[in-house]
Amino acid sequence: LHELYFENLVKGGKEIKQALSTGNIDIGLGGAANFFTPIEKDAPIIIVAPLSLSPTYLFVDKNSPIKTFEDLEGKNVAASPGGSSYTHLLYVLKKEEINYKNIKFIDLDKAPKFLALIEKKAIDAALVSEQEEGKYREAGAVLHEEWEKKRYSQSKFPRTIIAMNKDFLSKIEEANKFIEAIIE
């Protein structure tokens, strides 16, 4: 069993959504954003529960003139396309009626994103997870004014979720045992 487990181990959310869609696995854990598009396109996947919820922060330089969502148009924003923070920002922009296509998204890892905003001023804003928030505040970055005013930094967004193949869910007894084990 141990060899079988490691032989069939999938690496990340992208592989998990594919394996769930094809019925190669019954249950998967992964980044929430990986599952939204396949579900929207009627893939046989259902989100069972979030495993983690956390806010997204939109930081700007303390001297930045970027105060409103409209001010983001034409600017460089560090965000990982397809990730939970990026998906959260797209949701907010749609709600605020801002066309995301007018913003240049730059995919940077954590350390380069921090340096690009704080030291190099190479980007205008950065999407930041809860784990990184303190570092940005300590360095003098501030929350985007409208993001904070409208309390988007207070709203929790799903990060990691449990998803199931719908066919497995139809085997209700097995699915219920799994869900009960998670609850315990």
Description:
The strands form two sheets. The chain has a five-stranded mixed β-sheet with strand order 5-4-6-3-7. It has a three-stranded antiparallel β-sheet with strand order 1-8-2. It has nine helices and eight strands. The longest helix has 12 residues. With 184 residues, it is an alpha/beta fold.
- Report the helical percentage: 25-40%
Computed over alpha carbons, the radius of gyration is: 19 Å
- Principal-axes geometry comes out as elongated
* Number of helices in the DSSP assignment: 9
Strand content: 15-25%
What are the low-pLDDT stretches, counting only 5+ consecutive residues below 50?
1-7
Please summarize the sheet with the most strands: 5 strands, mixed
User: Roughly how many Å apart are the termini?
Assistant: 24 Å
Output mean pLDDT: 88
Number of E-state strands: 8
Q: Give the neighbour order of strands across the main sheet.
A: 5-4-6-3-7
Secondary-structure element pattern, one letter each? HHEHEEEHEHEHEHEHH
Class per helix and strand makeup: alpha/beta
Keywords:
five-stranded mixed sheet; disordered N terminus; 184 residues; alpha/beta; three-stranded antiparallel sheet
SSE topology sketch:
Layout: H1 2-7, H2 13-22, E1 27-31, H3 33-40, E2 45-54, E3 56-60, E4 76-78, H4 84-95, E5 104-106, H5 110-118, E6 125-129, H6 133-138, E7 142-143, H7 145-149, E8 157-165, H8 166-170, H9 172-183
Parallel strand pairs: 4-5, 4-6
Antiparallel strand pairs: 1-8, 2-8, 3-6, 3-7
